[in-house]
Design a protein that fits this description.
4-stranded mixed sheet; alpha/beta
């Protein structure tokens, strides 16, 4: 009997990966943090790796593998500039843990603190609610927090594709009912 695998907490659109690759070519290795509000709302923020101090209780949503295209799965862990860790504060994770975050990019001005700001594009978080079955599986999984990351913990590569062509591929829009 197959044991159900935990779904990924993070996916990205091809456009978001393309922008991250461009930014990495300019700034080197990157990291992201899902903002919890304040000055820049709740935008995902992109920084040169190490420029944002990850707290001991911040939660790793996943590591984007910039080597991957749409529908591809990794054969090994990404390293150095190919790996973009995406973090969220522990308290915000508690509010969002029932959702899969999909990193997307749209035209517009990014946050003044985020690297994409001068690119004419901005990162955007979209989300899909996990099913009750997925939530049950995820509840039994340990998450990697900042303290564990510093100790060298890294997630295993997922056998599930991480990059989708468009956000709707990971976050389907429910069909509208006639007359609504």
């Amino acid at each position: 009997m197959d044991v159900p695998r935990a779904p990924q907490r993070l996916k990205a659109t091809a456009g978001a990966v393309e922008l991250l690759c461009r930014l990495g070519g300019t700034h080197g290795a990157l990291m992201m943090h899902q903002s919890g509000g304040c000055c820049d709302g709740s935008a995902p923020m992109c920084y040169p790796d190490g420029e944002f101090i990850v707290g001991d209780r911040d939660v790793l949503l996943g590591v984007l593998d910039l080597r991957l295209g749409v529908g591809e799965t990794p054969s090994s862990r990404p390293e150095d500039a190919d790996a973009v860790p995406v973090w969220i504060s522990g308290s915000q994770f508690e509010a969002w843990k029932h959702t899969q975050l999909v990193l997307d990019v749209v035209p517009g001005r990014g946050s003044g603190f985020s690297l994409e700001s001068p690119e004419g594009m901005r990162f955007l978080s979209r989300a899909r609610a996990f099913t009750p079955e997925e939530n049950t599986i995820l509840a039994s999984e340990d998450v990697i927090v900042g303290e564990r990351w510093e100790q060298g913990w890294r997630p295993a590569p997922s056998p599930e594709p991480q990059v989708v062509a468009e956000a709707v591929d990971a976050c389907p829009v429910p069909a509208r009912r006639p007359g609504s």
